[in-house]
Structures are given as C-alpha cells and as structure tokens.
Specification:
Structural class of chain B: mainly alpha
Strand content of chain B: under 5%
Helix content of chain B: over 70%
Largest interface: A-B, 29 and 29 residues
Oligomer: heterodimer
Number of domains of chain A: 2
Chain lengths: ~500, ~500
C-alpha cells in the first residue's frame, strides 16, 4: 500500500502520536527517547512536504474520519493556509526538539519523559487544527491542544507553576466553552454545517448582518489562543513553563492555532466579502489595533526577558487578527505572512532567551548587557529575529508588515496604519535595543561571566534566524501559494 | 410474535414485558430473607443480568415493530392494565436494566464496606425491589400503575438511603427528608391522576389522552396537570424542588448514589414527559405555556444556580449531587423548547448523563472504599494513589464539562442547536454559563487529584492502592461508553430521535 494524500492526512495526526508512544516506551533510555522525538518530527516533515506541494498544485486532499451524528462529521481537508501552518509547525518541531534536548539536559529538568510525551501529543493536536476540514473538527483539535499543553505549562510543579497553569487553562477553556462553542453551534444553526468553503460558508448562505456581527465577536474573543486583549492574560501567565515550551507555545502551536483559527474563520466561514467593512469587524480590528500598541507599551516596561517576549507576542498576534478583520486581499495575505514570519522570528527569540538562561541563569533584560561579545552567535540570531519582528529588511517579517500596511490603506483604515507604525517604533525600543546593548554596552555581569551555552541550545536559534533571512527572498513564491485562497474576494 | 428468536422459549418471548418487572420483584423478596448476603448478591447479579438481556430483546423488538402492547392477565385495555412499550420507554428500560447490572457487579465491594452485616440481605432485597419499581414505572401504560411502581421504587429507595447509616448517621435524616418530600410528590401525583380519572373515567394513559380531547378548558383537567407536574417535579429534583437530593446522594451508600443518579431521576423525568406530551396534548394552551413560561425558565435557573452551588461544596459527593440538579435542568430545557430537536437533545442528554454520573459516582465510591474520604481536600494526590479510578473520573468529569470527544459534548451540542433553532439566545447564554461553572467544579476536584501530593500518614506518603476489579470494571465500562458515544454517537442519537418521535407522534 503506497502513500496516498488521504493517508498523508491521517499520518500528520498519527505520526506525532506514534512518536509519543515511542517516548513512553523508551522512558528509561534518554538518548533513545530523544531519538524517538526526532524521528517522529523528521517523519512528520517528510510526510507534510509532499502534501504541501500537492496543495500548491491545486489539489485539496480530503478525508472524513467519522460522523459523530448525522451532520456532525470530523473531516480533514488541506488547503493553502493550513498547509502553510502545517509545514511551519512541523519544521519548527524538529528545531525546537533539538533545542529542548539541549535545554532540558542543560538545566537537569525533572520528568522529561512526560515533557516530550505531551509535546508530541500537542503537535498532533496542532496538526489537527491545521488540516481540519470544518469548524467542528477544528474545535475538537483546538480543545485537545488546550488540554495537552496544560501539563507542559505546569511542568515545574511548584505553587507558581500551578497558579500560572490554572489561569492558562481557565481562560482558554472558559472562552472556548462560553464563546467559541456557541459561535460554532450558531454557525451550524444558521448555515446548516460548519464546513470551510472557498469564498465563505455564511456569505454563500446569505445570512443577515446582525447575526454575522454577533458570530464575529464570539469567534474573535472565543478563540482566546489568538490573545486579543482582554483575553490575552493567559499568555504572560504561561511563562512559568520551561523555555522550550514557551518557544513552542508562542511560536508554533498554541498562539498560531488561535490566529490561524481567526484567519480561517474569516476566509472560509464568513467570507472576506461580508467581513470587509462590517461594523463588528471594524470594531474588532480597532480592538486589535489597541492590543498591538498597548501590548508593545507593556512589553517596554518588562525587565524579565520572557515576560517582555510574551507581551511582544500578544502585540504581534493582533497583527493577524487585524489583517483578518480588515479582510482586504492584501490584509489577508499580510495576516498569512505574519503567521509564518512571526513563527520563525519569535521561536528564535525564545530559544535565545532559553540559551542565555541555560548558560548564565540570568532572566532579566538588564543582565544581557555586554554579553554580545561573549555569545556572538546567540545575540546575532537575536538581532536578526528582532529585525524581523520590527519589520525591517532584509528579514521575512518585513513582508508581513508591508502587506498589512497595504491592506490597511486599501481598507482606508488610517488608524490601523498608525498602530502599525507606532508598534514598529516601539519594537525598536523594546526589542532591538537588547542585542544592541549586548554588543555595544558593557556590563559587570558579562565581564565577570565565563559561562557558555551548550551547543545544542545555540544551533537551533541560529538555524531559525537563517531561515527568517531566507524567507525574505521567498516572499514571491509564498504569495503565489496563498493567493488562490483570496481569489474569490472581489 | 417473534419466531425468529428461536433460541428463547416461546413463553419467555411472549411474556417478556411482565417478566421483566415481576422477576426482580419476586426475587427481591427472596433475596431479602436469605441468610447469606453472598447468596442474595448472587440473585441480584443473575436477575439484573436477566433483566438487561430481556430489556435488550424488548428494545430490538420495539425497533422492529414499533409499539408493543401487552395486556396484563389478558384483560384487554383500557379496562385491564396495559404494558405499552414504544421507542421512548424501550430505551429507558434498557438504560435502567444495564445500569442496574453494572451496579450489581460493584455491589459487594460497596455493601461489605458500608452496610451493617445484619442488613445486607435486606439491602440486596431492597435494591432489587427498587430496580423492579423503576422498570415498572417505565413499562406501564396505566396511570395508576405508574403511581404504584413509583412508590415501590421510592419506598425501597428510602430504605436504601437509610442503610448508609452504617457509615454516617446523617443518612437517617437524609432518608427521612427524602421520605417526606418523596411522599408529598407521590401524593400530588396521585391526586393529579385522580383528577384525570374524574374528568375522563379511565386510567389507561392512551385512553385518557383520547378522552382529554376537547377538555382543554376543563378546570379539573388543568388542576390535574398542575398536580402531576409538581408531584413529578419533586421526584425528579426539578429546581427548586430539589432540596432532598443533595443530602440523599451524599449520605447513601456509594452504590445507591451511583444507581440513583443514573436511573431514578431519569425515570421520573421520563414519566413527566410521558404525561405532559403523551397524555396531555402539548397543543393545549396551558400545557404548552407551562413549558415555555415555567419549565424552561426554571430549567435555566436550575442549571445556573445549582452549578453555582456545586462550585462551593466541600464534600465531593454533594458537589456532584448539585451538579445532578443542574443537569436535570439541561434535560428540562430541552423539553421546555417543545420542539422535536429539543426533545431529542433532552433524551440524548438523559442517556449521556446517566453514563457520566454513573462513572463519576462509581469512581467516587471506589475512592471512599479505598480511603474512606469524601471531602474534596482529602482527594489530593488521588491521581497517584488510585490511578485507574482517577483516570475514569477524569473521563466522566470532562464529559460533564462537555469537552469534545466525550458524550457530554454531543448532547450539549444538540441542545445548543435546538435552542438556536428556536432563537432562544438567553438559553444559549445559560448553557454557556453552566458549562463554565461545570468546568470550575470539575476542575477543582481534578486539580486536587493531580496537582497535589498525596496526604501524609504517620510521616509517610499514602501508598498506591488501586480499587478492586469489581469496582473498576463497571466504572470503566461506563467511562469507555462516554468516549465511544462521544465519537460514534449514531446509535444514541437514533434512539433519542425515535424517542422524540414516539413522544410527539403519540400526541394526537
């Protein structure tokens, strides 16, 4: 039996789970156990790449897993946005695993088997989100992702970790039970299904304006993984987790699942034609603009490195929400770009922070002064990633900001443009200064330190930073890849 | 009438409906007087298994032929008592019988720990009689007969609850309270039936339904309706008539709690539906209005208020007793909608709730057997000390919250869709609030079980002590059912639709 696209879809879910079982089975043998993680990660990427190429050629592989009850089916279907998300996540799983091995061993963390196990389960859920063919399926995997990441956030097991993890779970589950689920059911009630349809399910069903508004608001705040203010507070609280988890949550899995849901809902459930210019969408876009600026300002005040990165994430995620809600072709393309570009940049930043912590056990921004000359690769990577977040060339993040600005102009939303500019300036203030000071300022701690980070914690961020640079030159192909999705806009 | 089931003797097939009820009733008496508790249990196990088999057979039969009417003693209805099984109560019979059998497996573990030795045979006897009573309520088509069976099950329930006194003396007052409230309920119910008899001159439910046509404005009929709804409302713990339930559930022997939570209120709920929709015509102004203006708002209030109360309980069984009151609200809401979709969702939730509460209470029972604890704070570290029981509890709890992939999600989904169909946004809101509260009260317990260290005893952490297989097996069967019916809900959905069709179809 050869590989078929349908089998490939199933394998995207199953391979990480097989990896998870392998991890459990090899619990006593750390080297083999990590081997299982890496093998599963590489197999997953090898499985995803042909799928991505097929989708680029116009195929839409589809498979119904099961029909829970008549009309309620769990279906997988891959389209360009999902493919982009899937390939980003599976590629980063490999790099993040390498980093995790270095970090977990470097810090002699306990319960490592449990850690790798739930990481693999969470990847499976993330893949499920990426390849979902309807909103119900997406919702199921979305919840699975919440539950499977909970043990990761509470990994340390002390009172602080428990508290952070409790808030994490509480906000994500409550919003999804109280807002997202009614939104999904509401979609089902008015449209008769929750299927993702090119051009928009609800646009095709001719649903009235007020209902659209209510549903949009429910989705925007129900998908709290997208961290739109004021449902963002789970994210800084999740910082109690070990750094590989933060890297994973903030770059790859959880937050991206949130904004991806947002994008997918706008493009395939509502349809850009009815979202664009809708008063509710405009209101949400303004909330997103406020989130962008406010979170950046808060980031500026944080001295703890991970906390600063967390608020930076809150800010950057709202770019996607903003793009989705403006819903012009350029804005949507910008949102799609932002998902990918931010993933590579932010994972780099977190891995750098983790590597720095492993080497020195310092947590604060002020401690990094002068370390640039001691750890040139680490802070070089940090610098590249910070450029990407800010949106400067020659790094991939620039394209996202460019398309988003074009989209804002297209929609005539001057305030969105203003927020984007303001945020970029703030980015310079809270992010780019860090590597600059590391290289050009001098610090007592740096002068006294002889610490070195394990190579396995340095290599992955350097690689992801390199990819972020390469992505700058791949803007054309990526745009061509996602363009068909927005084709039905005008 | 069923030649294709050749391996069963003809008389057994033909007389399956009365045998289903009479066998446990007679066996109950025998079990009560046997000197050996083990032998009594043997009888319970055999009879409940027999009943489960009979109920499955009857259900299959009803699926094929539609309605199965059996004239008791060959006295033709409406003069004689009629046992009448359709798509609605076939499912109820099956549910009660199967849950009864699963509880019977678990019984000796619970009884030997909680019931005084001299009471054990009596306990098994009362259990069987209660079981028979519940089956009788579900199967009969005669209004007065419903009352008789309701009292048979209730009175034996009072005895069963009181036997918890071996463990906690408060079981006696709990049982006494329940007796008072239950008797008031039964009295109201029988007065209501009396009114109906006054107005129509018959006790056969189908016959009453026929003769009630055109009596919509009749004061006697309206009074009868009110008495019946309140009476049954007491029995099924409809908010705010639920005050007996939390104590009864908390102090009864663990087995009884699991059994009652999964069956007794469900049967009373079934009876309410049967009367409101099968006997009275929902087209009657007062019946329809009472659904919209009385049942639905009370249901929503119960969902939210009882869930809220559950969050603040310190005794874990009490917590889930309040949760049961809230879940009854879900079911009543579906009925209050008055649509086929709502009714179907309601039955689906009835079935699923039996699965989840059965799991939860069996797991809590096992924890009590293992460590003698029912306070939430005493459950800390349970995830490590009783891993299998805790895992089953997690499944039941998640199902209660309505996490996708569990049975609870499917029925909540159906209920939400039904509410939106009707345009009841406030009900959607109430459901959302209740779900969030459910997350809180389940989460509280889960956190205690998995994120705290096991308690210290004489300076040592309490060691692992998995529950006996007799407790684990039924618990895991129910837990697995929660998962299976969360992913392949085709069968329960079809049963629920059939039940809804039977209810709404039988109303002329």
């Amino acid at each position: 039996m050869g590989w078929t696209p349908e089998l490939g879809l199933v394998l995207t879910l199953v391979l990480p789970l097989v990896g998870a079982l392998g991890i459990l089975a090899l619990a006593g043998k750390p080297n083999l156990r990590e081997g299982a993680t890496l093998a599963a990660a590489i197999a997953l990427l090898a499985n995803v790449i042909p799928l991505v190429i097929m989708v680029g050629d116009g195929a839409r592989p589809e498979l119904m897993i099961t029909e829970i009850a008549p009309g309620l089916d769990l279906t997988l279907r891959l389209e360009p946005l999902g493919a982009l998300f899937a390939v980003t996540a599976s590629a980063l799983w490999i790099l993040n695993s390498l980093f995790a091995i270095g970090y977990m061993r470097g810090n002699a963390e306990h319960n490592q088997t449990r850690f790798y196990f739930f990481l693999a389960v969470a990847i499976s859920a993330t893949m499920g989100v990426a390849v979902s063919g309807n909103m119900l399926t997406l919702f199921v995997f979305y919840e699975a992702l919440t539950l499977s990441t909970y043990p990761l956030v509470s990994h340390k097991g002390d009172e602080n970790a428990r508290r952070g993890a409790r808030i994490y779970l509480m906000i994500l589950l409550i919003t999804s039970l109280a807002l997202l689920l009614p939104a999904v059911v509401g979609t089902y009630a008015v449209a008769g299904s929750t299927e993702f349809v090119q051009g928009g399910l609800l646009a095709g069903a001719g649903v009235g304006g007020a209902t659209i508004g209510i549903l949009l608001v429910l989705y925007a705040f129900g998908a709290a993984k997208a961290a739109l203010m004021p449902v963002h507070s789970w994210l800084p609280n999740a910082m109690v987790a070990p750094t590989p988890v933060s890297a994973f949550l903030h770059a790859v899995a959880v937050v991206k699942a949130g904004v991806f849901t947002m994008l997918k809902v706008v493009v395939y459930l509502f349809g850009p034609s009815i979202v664009s210019g809708h008063p509710a969408a405009n209101a949400i876009a303004m909330v997103a603009a406020v989130s962008i600026v406010l979170a950046s300002v808060i980031a500026l005040t944080k001295n703890n490195l991970k906390a600063r990165l967390a608020f930076s994430t809150v800010s950057q995620l709202s770019y996607v929400t903003l793009g989705a809600m403006l819903a012009t072709p350029a804005a949507l393309a910008g949102a799609a770009f932002q998902i990918v570009m931010h993933a590579f940049a932010k994972i780099t930043l977190f891995m750098c922070a983790g590597a720095f912590y492993t080497a020195t056990h310092y947590n604060d921004v002020s401690d990094t002064r002068g370390f640039g000359r001691k750890m040139p690769f680490l802070f070089g990577a940090f610098f590249v990633a910070a450029l990407s977040i800010t949106g400067l060339p020659p790094v991939g993040g620039m394209w996202a900001k460019l398309f988003l600005s074009a989209g804002a102009a297209e929609a005539g939303a001057w305030w969105a443009l203003l927020a984007l500019i303001l945020s970029s300036l703030l980015n310079v203030g809270y992010l780019i200064v860090i590597p600059v000071r590391a290289f050009f300022a001098s610090g007592e701690k740096a002068a006294a330190s002889t610490a070195t980070a394990p190579p396995l914690t340095i290599l992955p961020p350097v690689l992801t930073a390199t990819i972020a640079l390469v992505l700058f030159f791949l803007a054309g192909p990526i745009y061509d890849y996602v363009a068909p999705v927005f084709g039905g806009v005008e | 009438m069923t030649p294709e089931i050749a391996f069963l003797p003809g008389w057994l097939v033909q007389h399956a409906p009365p045998l289903l009820v009479v066998t446990p009733l007679i066996a109950g008496v025998i079990a009560a007087v046997l000197p050996s508790a083990r032998a009594s249990w043997g009888i319970v196990l055999a009879i409940t298994f027999f009943a489960a088999a009979m109920a499955s057979f009857i259900a299959m039969q009803v699926m094929e032929v539609g309605v199965w009417s059996y004239a008791l003693g060959s006295w033709a209805p409406p003069l004689g008592i009629e046992y009448r099984i359709d798509g609605l109560n076939a499912g109820m019979l099956l549910l009660v019988a199967v849950i009864g059998f699963l509880c019977a497996i678990y019984a000796p573990a619970s009884v030997e720990a909680e019931v005084a030795p001299e009471n054990r045979s009596a306990f098994y006897g009362a259990f069987l009689i209660c079981f028979a009573g519940l089956l009788g309520v579900a199967i009969t088509g005669d209004a007065f007969n419903v009352f008789v069976f309701l009292e048979i099950s209730s009175i034996s329930t009072y005895a069963l609850v009181a036997m918890g006194a071996g463990r906690d003396r408060r079981a006696l007052t709990a049982s006494y309270n329940y007796l008072i409230m239950g008797t008031i309920g039964a009295t109201f119910f029988v007065i209501g039936v009396g009114f109906l008899y006054m107005a129509t001159g018959t006790l056969n439910m189908a016959d009453i339904a026929d003769r009630l046509q055109g009596l919509e404005g009749d004061r006697t009929v309206q009074a009868g309706f009110a008495f019946i709804v309140v009476g049954l409302g007491l029995k099924l713990a409809m908010y705010p008539l639920h005050s007996w339930l939390p104590n009864a559930y908390s102090y009864a022997p663990t087995l009884v709690t699991a059994f009652l939570a999964a069956t007794a209120t469900k049967v009373a709920f079934y009876t309410l539906i049967r009367f409101v929709f099968g006997v009275f015509d929902p087209g009657f102004g007062f019946a329809g209005l009472s659904m919209i203006w009385l049942i639905a708002p009370l249901a929503a209030a119960g969902m939210v208020v009882a869930s809220f109360q559950a969050v603040f309980q310190s005794d874990v069984r009490r917590l889930f007793a309040y949760s049961s009151v809230a879940q009854v609200g879900y079911m009543l809401l579906g009925v209050g909608l008055g649509t086929a979709a709502g009714m179907s969702a309601s039955f689906l939730h009835l079935f699923n709730h039996a699965l989840m509460k059965g799991t939860v209470f069996l797991a809590l029972g096992a924890m009590w057997l293992g460590f003698g604890v029912t306070r939430i704070t005493d459950l800390r570290g349970m995830g490590r000390t009783m891993p299998y029981t805790s895992a089953a509890f997690v499944i039941g709890g998640l199902s209660l919250v309505g996490v996708p992939g569990t049975a609870g999600f499917v029925s909540k989904w159906a209920l939400l869709v039904a509410c939106l169909d009707r345009g009841w946004w406030w009900a959607v809101l109430a459901l959302g609030a209740a779900s969030v509260l459910a997350f809180f009260y389940v989460g509280r317990v889960l956190e205690m079980m998995y994120l705290r260290e096991p308690p210290q005893h004489d300076g040592h952490a309490v060691t692992r002590s998995p529950a006996p297989l007799a407790a684990l097996a039924p618990m895991w069967i129910l837990a697995a059912a929660n998962l299976v019916f969360g992913i392949w809900a085709d069968i329960p959905v079809r049963l629920a639709n059939a039940a809804a069709a039977a209810v709404l179809g039988s109303a002329p």
